[in-house]
From TrEMBL:
GO terms for molecular function: phospholipid scramblase activity. Coiled coil: none annotated. This is Phospholipid scramblase. InterPro entries: Scramblase. GO terms for cellular component: plasma membrane. Belongs to the phospholipid scramblase family.
Length: 243
């Protein structure tokens, strides 16, 4: 059931727009900490589509992502902290991938933001956000992808010098933040990317829905592509769901 990702080189991960969330306060910048106690916070849904190199085309739908969590967690916990289960369904309504993210409390020493990923019920790896002052290293955000043996296989980094605000003029609209994907053995040459894409002025200003373009590493297998896709969901919760 990993055939859906086997031949995919480029993809778009698009979040479902929840009309009940249009009344919530949103900011034109990514934010690590949001506002809890939102009665309109709904379970997130995402769709993964095949795309092209420039992410200008939305092709065949590959997977549906559905957050499974309680109303209490969504109300009391900001997105970057709350725990949830993410279920991924394919075209035939099979459940190839699932992910588990525990509740994360930043002030607790052993509470580290991470998400474990499973394929057909078997553990295949995890996504972890290291506890470090990335801004002091010239980085906006950093996460690591581990395989089933808990070995780092990919480092994903976003540089600090990027357009992180929603700039609007008669000729220019930009709110794109790029994450470079590096092989763990080569942290200089990027082999893929995850890019936060502009999702329309109305969506950006009045909702928390986002979309991302993904360029998978050329030599990545289907399991690794699944982990990278889950890392994109993880990024959304850590930064963009809070704003």
């Amino acid at each position: 059931m990993t055939e859906g990702l086997k031949s995919i080189n480029y993809a778009i991960l698009r979040q479902e727009i929840d009309q009940l969330e249009w009344c919530t306060l949103t900011l034109p910048i990514p934010c690590k900490f949001g506002l809890p106690c939102s009665p309109c916070e709904l379970p997130n849904e995402y769709y993964l589509y095949q795309s092209n190199e420039n992410y200008s085309e939305v092709g065949m739908k590959i997977y549906d992502f559905q957050e499974k969590t309680t109303c209490l967690k969504r109300t009391l916990c900001m997105p970057s902290m709350r725990g949830f289960t993410m279920e991924v369904n394919d075209f035939y309504n099979n459940l190839p991938f699932t992910a588990e993210k525990p509740v994360n409390i930043p002030c607790f020493k052993n509470s580290k933001p991470e998400m474990k990923v499973y394929f057909e019920g078997n553990y295949i790896g995890k996504i972890v956000e290291p506890k470090s002052l990335t801004c002091c290293q010239g980085k906006f955000h950093e996460i690591k992808i581990y395989n089933k043996d808990d070995e780092v296989i990919y480092n994903i980094e976003a540089k600090l010098k990027q357009n992180m605000c929603l700039w609007i003029s008669d000729k220019y609209i930009d709110n794109q933040i790029s994450y470079n994907i590096y092989d763990n053995e080569d942290e200089i040459n990027s082999i893929g990317e995850i890019k936060h894409l502009f999702f329309g002025l109305y969506n950006e200003a009045c909702s928390k829905a986002d979309q991302y373009g993904i360029t998978y590493p050329e030599n990545a297998n289907s399991i690794e592509k699944g982990l990278i896709t889950m890392a994109t969901v993880f990024i959304d919760y850590q930064w963009f769901e809070n704003s």
